[in-house]
User: Fold this.
Amino acid sequence: MRILVVEDEARLRDQLQAALEEAGYAVDTVADGELAHFVGSTEACDAVVLDLGLPQLDGLSVLRRWRAEEVAMPVLILTARDAWHEKVAGMDAGADDYLAKPFRMEELLARLRALLRRASGAASAVLEISGVSLDTRTARVSLDGAPVKLTGHEYRVLSYLMHHAGAVVSRTELIEHIYAQDYDRDSNTVEVFIRRLRTKLGDAFIVTERGLGYRVGEPCA
Amino acid sequence: MRILVVEDEARLRDQLQAALEEAGYAVDTVADGELAHFVGSTEACDAVVLDLGLPQLDGLSVLRRWRAEEVAMPVLILTARDAWHEKVAGMDAGADDYLAKPFRMEELLARLRALLRRASGAASAVLEISGVSLDTRTARVSLDGAPVKLTGHEYRVLSYLMHHAGAVVSRTELIEHIYAQDYDRDSNTVEVFIRRLRTKLGDAFIVTERGLGYRVGEPCA
DNA sequence: CCGGCTGTTAATCCGCTGTTAATCGCCGCA
DNA sequence: TGCGGCGATTAACAGCGGATTAACAGCCGG
Assistant:
């Protein structure tokens, strides 16, 4: 899962990046509205954390422009405390949730999980598919009840696949959502991670659709 | 364990700070309600000692605001003797315990220990994990029955880890809960204390989860 | 002034990552 | 049915960065 953080204050931006990366996300950070709009429109982000007070182009405008362009990813807005009018304006502009500053990092993480969960249509924080269960709160994975140790990138690959259970996910899609920034690789990084996951979770769990990509769970019609 | 002390009277505030530090806690002190609210909302404190009579913003309001924001840490309220209505109001506002002034420092320490224990879900005042036992009353540690001498910070690190047994604790989290005030270190202070604990308690006791942090005891599901 | 506690620096180790390359196997085609 | 090609699989390895560890320097209290 790849998150775009839009925050002008360097200190908070770094904190956000650190916390999100620690939680297992790929993180892009951006400091001004213009760039935020560009990255959000161009890159394949799964969610956005958007501060409203920004130089260049303020957060609300960015959000409105995204929505006007049908950029649909969930957006979590950060507002100053007590600025309830900003909250209202934000929700009207198409925000999916908001959080008043100052806030607890854990709360932000929890809300973000909720947004991502909703976006993927899952009801629970624990995804389970044919014996493999993935807890999005603790980033822990188990196979038939037995805990499985995954590395950071292995977890991201698996998490993305399981959030899109039943769908065929192409190599490019995986790369875009698993790495921040632009990351062109001509090599077979994805295949290697698929391999590593298969040795840990059993060969049959991840199905390959030749010429298309990989799939987890029953194909959706 | 990091405690926030909110008390406007300088003399008592200093006494509290001294006693708590001697008991092995990291202590932040704050003299007025506004600041108290800010610190409590922002910093990672494990418990609060809150005087009700405060300038700016009184203690009850601070507490209510925290609870409204879902700031959940245990709060121990200090009230004037015989002000039973304050006690009732305090409990209603979300206090976890109260203590009438004047009080014995030992009683405050005992009540605080009880709060911290409850918060971490422990039943006893002595935490024991795979041969290592930590007595929260005396701040003494032993390994397989044999007493182990720890320094102040070593004790705090170990105590925090054992209060969160089974959970992975990140370096940042440790730093936040072990030092009062803001304390940004770019160096590997935490690793060093982990090392020192490992040499005293055995290498296997503290497990490292690469890229995430450290853990003590069996991973919780 | 001494000794222990702290925190910093720096050398080293080790697991993760991504690359290369060899092999496999599916599929189309003759 | 056999062959060739291409995509997928798999193993092996080198570089990097996080983690470990030792050694030292500053500080504080006695």
In short: The domain at 2-120 of chain A is CATH 3.40.50.2300 (Rossmann fold).
